[in-house]
Design brief:
By secondary structure, the chain is an alpha/beta fold. It folds into 2 domains: 135 residues, 3-Layer(aba) Sandwich (Rossmann fold); 145 residues, HUPs (Rossmann fold, 3-Layer(aba) Sandwich), CATH 3.40.50.620. The chain is built from 10 helices and 10 strands. It has a 10-stranded mixed sheet, sandwiched between helices. Helix 3 runs parallel beside helix 4 and helix 9 packs parallel to helix 10. The radius of gyration is 20 Å and the shape is elongated. About 3% of the residues have low confidence.
Length: 295
């Protein structure tokens, strides 16, 4: 991974928590951090005057204060600041073309409102060219760190794989790289559609037809083989279950320290869409969520 870790920053607790998470990740990956603030896209609840000068001054203060906090935590971190006048969504999407990852804050569990508000936030997440991570304001493991005993009950990198084969490679690369970096295991989740309950025995027991399940497990194992070989120190657990993909992923993510889901790239900036699995993860999972674009 190359390019800076770009953080959308507005001074709210959510965005500051995202900056802390991004700083630790950037330090561990030996990447610089870029703090980005759009003075024309500020939270509606920020008690500042509406004059342009006041808004610019507020933005500059937010950037300077956060930079100082990050350097106090990680003295060897490289941090840059950028105050822009273009809409935040435009600035973030432009930076995503050369960033290593993009990090946004989310105000609370069950909400995707953040540095960007509502549909704007989803618009950015649906169009970024690099992996994008959302971090909640109440994220408890930002302070704890990956190896801290207080975070022992959330120690996995969970990755949802909807299609085995080449389409899964960007997700698996991000998940395995992150897991190796932090000494964490990877849980690879594959949902079998309810239509897998095809035989009378399957309908009675609630388990997928054994032949179909064996075939899917074999395909998943084949997909994971090169990643196991490339990352021999990473423990891998394949999790296969019947049900809607979003439901299966949520159920399997109880120990997730980071959950990785995929998002298909879109050819035009005016076309964006997040699938049901990404929506469910963003709205319901308490841990940071990584959306990784793929073809």
């Amino acid at each position: 991974m190359t390019g800076p870790v770009v953080v959308g920053l507005d001074g709210s607790p959510a965005s500051v928590t995202a900056a802390w998470w991004a700083a630790r990740e950037a330090r561990d990956r030996h990447l610089p951090v870029l703090l980005l603030h759009s003075w024309t896209t500020q939270p509606l609840d920020v008690p500042i005057a509406q004059e342009a000068f006041s808004r610019k001054r507020y933005g500059d203060q937010v950037l300077q204060r956060t930079e100082a906090e990050l350097l106090h935590r990680y003295a060897d971190l490289t941090v840059a600041r950028e105050l822009v006048s273009v809409p935040a969504s435009q600035a973030l999407l432009e930076h995503s073309e050369r960033a290593g990852m993009l990090v946004l804050g989310s105000r609370a569990h069950g909400s995707v409102s953040s540095f960007l508000l509502g549909s704007i936030s989803l618009h950015v997440l649906g169009l970024t060219q690099c992996p994008s991570i959302t971090v909640r304001a109440d994220e408890p493991v930002v302070e704890a760190g990956w190896g801290h005993p207080g975070a022992a009950d959330r120690d996995e990198v969970v990755v949802g794989v909807q299609q085995v084969g080449p389409d899964a490679d960007p997700l698996l690369e991000f998940a395995f790289t992150t897991a190796e970096l932090h000494g964490a295991p990877v849980r690879v989740v594959k949902a079998l559609p309810p239509s897998a309950l095809v035989s009378p025995h399957a309908l009675f027991t609630g388990q997928a037809d054994s032949r179909y399940e064996v075939e899917e497990r074999t395909r998943l194992a084949a997909t994971l083989t090169p990643w196991r070989e490339k990352f021999p120190e990473v423990l891998v657990e394949a999790h296969v279950a019947v049900g809607p993909a979003a439901q299966v992923l949520l159920s399997a993510s109880g120990r997730g320290r980071l959950v990785v889901v995929g998002r298909r790239r879109h050819p035009a900036h005016y076309t964006w869409k997040l699938g049901p699995v990404a929506h469910a993860a963003l709205h319901h999972l308490p841990c940071p969520i990584a959306l990784v674009p793929h073809d």
